[in-house]
Amino acid sequence: MMSTFSLEQIRALDRRYRANLINSLAGFKQPVLVGTQSTQGQSNLAIFNSLLHIGADPALFGLLFRPHSVRRDTLENILETGCYTLNYPTVAMLHQAHQTSAKYPHDRSEFDAAGLTAGYRNDWPAPFVEEAPVQIALSLAERLDIQSNNTILIIGKIEAIHFDDALLLPDGFVPLEQADILACVGLDAYYQPRHITRLAYARPDEPPASPDH
Amino acid sequence: MMSTFSLEQIRALDRRYRANLINSLAGFKQPVLVGTQSTQGQSNLAIFNSLLHIGADPALFGLLFRPHSVRRDTLENILETGCYTLNYPTVAMLHQAHQTSAKYPHDRSEFDAAGLTAGYRNDWPAPFVEEAPVQIALSLAERLDIQSNNTILIIGKIEAIHFDDALLLPDGFVPLEQADILACVGLDAYYQPRHITRLAYARPDEPPASPDH
User: Fold this and answer.
1) How far is residue A128's CA from residue A150's CA, in Å, rounded to a whole number?
2) Alpha-carbon distances, residue A68 vs A35, A39, A74, A79, B99 (angstroms)
3) Which residues in chain B have Cβ-Cβ distances shorter than 8 Å to A156?
4) B interface mutation test: which of A121, A162, A174 has the most B CBs within 10 A?
């Protein structure tokens, strides 16, 4: 049966219940491990579920941060160094990836705490996660402050992509599921997506069909 | 074997190949059918893969639009009426949902073209998709123009949520997979996510565990 939450009902909900409801209704997301390094050389790793495709040319990804009212190592490192990495956790890395969300002391690296390996490539001043089958280097391109709730959208420019080339299809598509890359919902639920189909570019009055790639 | 695309290599790629590569690397997404109505009363429905959770209190979702250089019915209707809906397609609705991305004439409703049912609830001036197990009413809260590539982030405030109450767990989490809700990658690949686990809030030096809900 269809049930309704009105604005007033949503506002009256218990804080945690509302967070679960609204976060889960935001749907399936790509969790990414964001690697940064402070200007003092301290590495940091944190899981985010707010990755947004901004554009392909130039290649830009967005990442949403909560208000900068408390210490936020990842955001501060990105703003100070201009460099970060995105690393895609697999099913086998699930527990390690989630553990990076714990609030560790400032001087402890989440790489060590979670048992993941920091890797450095091509002099990029932010660490990659060696275990991740897809690793992307980004540079800070733009910062947008969202007035509605003081969150911050960081736009990053893709500087380099490192990935298992067995994953690359002839048309440029990367079938992430073949590397067992995780999806998530909200802050605590993890999923393994099963591929159904790819569909051809839709045209008016033509039935949808699977493309021949 | 790990393979690398440098910034120069990404720039030199064929346009479609690069779009496939960058879009698919943005990972698993929640496709949503965005329902709007023009000030002339013409209903419109279009699939988007750029849903972003902005916050739970107030409950805000973002949606990214490409540059407003050509006619964009959905964006124009949102800016003119301030009202829209998000509707979550299921596996059974896959072909109909994808078909809404075809470029129909301005005076043809994608509801009719794709064979989906426009529903109106509580005098909300934008149509819902009756077949969707989750339907959300949003009002325009904020517009952000992204300088890096002229895309537009529309922030919407959740005004009402309509959904199958069999889906609601005691802590507010909505297990979308139980309604066969789709995930997607890029512009043409569709997935059915299989639930793996939910994990407890991570704490330093405690191993991750599944919560008891």
Assistant:
1) 29
2) 18, 18, 11, 11, 41
3) none
4) A174
pLDDT in tens, A60-114: 999 999 987 777 899 999 999 999 999 999 999 999 999 999 999 988 999 999 9
Please, are residues A37 and A202 in contact by the beta-carbon 8 Å criterion? no
CB contact under 8 A, A53 and B5: no
Residue B97's closest CA among B20, B43, B32?
B32
Q: State the ipTM, two decimals.
A: 0.95
- Taking the CA of residue B39 and the nearest CA in chain A, the distance in Å comes to 24
B18–A172 CB contact, under 8 Å: yes
Parallel, antiparallel or unpaired: strands B2-6 and A189-198: unpaired
Rounded Cα distance between A118 and B197, Å, is: 26
On whether the CB atoms of residues B127 and B138 are closer than 8 A, the answer is: no
Instruction: Write a three-state SS string for A73-86.
Output: HHHHHHHHHCEEEE
Check if A171 contacts B (Cβ < 8 Å). yes
Output the pLDDT for position B210: 60
The tens digit of pLDDT for each residue in A55-68 reads 999 999 999 999 87
b or e along B39-72 (b: 16 or more beta carbons within 10 Å of the residue's beta carbon)? eeeebbbbbbbbbbbbbbeebbbbbbbeeeeeeb
Tell me whether B140 touches chain A (CB under 8 Å): no
- The answer to whether the CB atoms of B183 and A146 lie below 8 A apart is no
Return the sign of the alpha-carbon dihedral for residues A78, A16, A111, A50: negative
What's the alpha-carbon Rg for chain B, to the nearest Å? 19
Cα A40 to the chain's mean position, in Å? 25
Mean pLDDT of successive 10-residue stretches along chain B, which has 213 residues = 93 97 98 97 96 98 90 93 98 96 90 96 95 98 98 98 94 97 96 96 78 49
CA A19 to chain B, closest CA, distance in angstroms equals 5
Q: What is the pTM of this model?
A: 0.96
Which ranges of B2-123 would DSSP assign to H, the alpha helix? 7-12, 15-25, 73-81, 94-99, 110-114
CB distance A190 to B199 below 8 Å: yes
Looking up tokens 């007033």 gives A8
User: Which of A65, A162, A173, A190 would best serve as a mutation to test chain B binding (most B beta carbons within 10 A)?
Assistant: A173
